[in-house]
Amino acid sequence: MKSRHRQKKLKTIYSNNYRTMIGKIIIGKSFKNCITYCLKDKQELSLEDINKLSPAEQQLQHKNRAEILEYNKCFGNIKELTEQMNDVKKQSRRIEKPVMHIILRMAPEDRVLSKNELIEIGRKCAEAFGVADHQYLNILHKDTAQQHIHLVINRIGFDGKATSDSNNY
Questions:
Q1: Is 10's pLDDT higher than 80?
Q2: What does 39-102 look like in DSSP terms, one character per residue?
Q3: pTM to 2 decimals?
Q4: Which long-range contacts (CB under 8 A, 24 or more apart) does 77-83 make?
Q5: How high is the pLDDT of residue 159?
Q6: In Å, how far are 66, 67, 124 from 60, measured between CA atoms?
Q7: Domain annotation for the chain: domains and CATH numbers
Q8: Triad 62, 55, 116: Cα angle to 5°
Q9: Which residues have C-beta within 8 Å of that of residue 109, sequence separation ≥ 6?
């Protein structure tokens, strides 16, 4: 029942302008691992691996696959972002899993969105989850046929309070 509520909430936010956003929420422990996953390129594909891909998949971007669309209350490279988020995490030592990682992708039948539209979607999502004033990154990935963004969010705010994770799936 709780996951239906979260799915409905995501769909309601975006259904006015777009057909459907498909979302996944992950709560985790490590800012470094999450940020690294989102920003680092996947390992280089061999010629043999590339030949196994369909023509459409061969057109996907595997190098420079990630682009930060927005920094919210944080900045820098992977090391600096990790340090900044860990510094804020120290405001609440009782939270064991301070990382909220939200992946949002467009439905296959939807049009390609502009970077400004993707930034707006990230902001609306952060507002809906009550983390608009928290540190977060909005990252565009270009490595799949379906356009998608990753939000890496610090669940701990600058006031030391954590956003709830009770409705996550």
A1: no
A2: HSPPPPPPHHHHHHS-HHHHTS--TT-EEEEEEES--SSHHHHHHHHHHHHTT-TT-S--EEEE
A3: 0.81
A4: 78/32, 78/35, 78/36, 78/39, 78/40, 81/31, 81/35, 81/137, 82/31, 82/32, 82/35
A5: 96
A6: 12, 14, 28
A7: 2-42+49-154 (3.30.930)
A8: 50
A9: 19
